[in-house]
Design brief:
- The protein is of the alpha+beta class.
- The chain has five helices and seven strands, in the order αβββββββαααα.
- The strands form two sheets. Strands 1-2-3-6-7 form a five-stranded antiparallel sheet, with helices on both faces. Strands 4-5 form a two-stranded antiparallel ribbon.
- Strand 6 and strand 7 form a beta hairpin.
- The longest helix is centred in the N-terminal third of the chain and has 16 residues.
- The radius of gyration is 16 Å and the shape is globular.
- The termini are far apart.
- Bound molecules: cobalt (II) ion.
- Cobalt (II) ion binds next to helix 2.
């Protein structure tokens, strides 16, 4: 596959990889483990991250990591994750994204979810949550489908983000096809 983690960094909007639908992981190889270790490092680097998806480091694979407490002992990797909504109750919460610095928006999402994924050893696991972790799962899972918070936030939040988005677009070195917000 040729994933090089040495110069890996978090890619910012509007990098086109953030809009791709990520592909499933065939096997949890040493290369995948190295990638996941790097993702943990980058998630914690700025001291703000509680989750990071592989497309955010330029790798279009169905992998993400979370750490809802920001304490590395709670680091968890999810390979080929599948989310199931367990209840129709939804709630508003403000979200940010490491690929969209200076942008925040309120997003309504289901509260209670189940997660099935492979861990870093390639073993399947099942988790359920109705708290912050379930919120992070949904945000990171969106990244695997090319969906960003700007697609889900209210029109008002999107308007408020306009300048920050424009600045990110002006700063971009890799440009995605123009999209109208
Ligand atoms: Co994000």
């Amino acid at each position: 596959m040729g994933i090089n983690v040495d110069k890996m960094k978090i890619v910012k909007f509007p990098h086109p990889v953030l809009r791709q639908k990520a592909k499933p992981v065939d096997a949890v190889t040493p290369e995948i483990k190295t990638l996941v270790a790097k993702m943990f490092e980058l998630m914690h680097e700025g001291g703000k991250g509680v989750g990071l998806a592989a497309p955010q480091v330029g790798v279009s694979l169905r992998i993400f990591v979370t750490c809802e407490t920001q304490d590395p002992k709670d680091d968890r990797a999810y390979i080929n994750p599948v989310l199931t909504v367990q209840d129709t109750v939804s709630e508003d919460m403000e979200e940010g994204c490491l690929s969209l610095p200076d942008i925040r928006g309120t997003i309504r999402r289901p509260v209670k979810l189940a997660m099935d994924a492979l861990d870093i050893d390639g073993q399947p696991f099942h988790l359920e949550d109705d708290d912050y972790l379930a919120r992070i799962w949904q945000h990171e899972n969106d990244h695997l489908d090319g969906v960003l918070i700007i697609d889900r936030m209210s029109l008002m939040d999107r308007m408020a983000s306009k300048r920050a988005l424009k600045e990110l677009e002006d700063r971009a070195t890799v440009v995605a096809p123009k999209k109208k917000w």
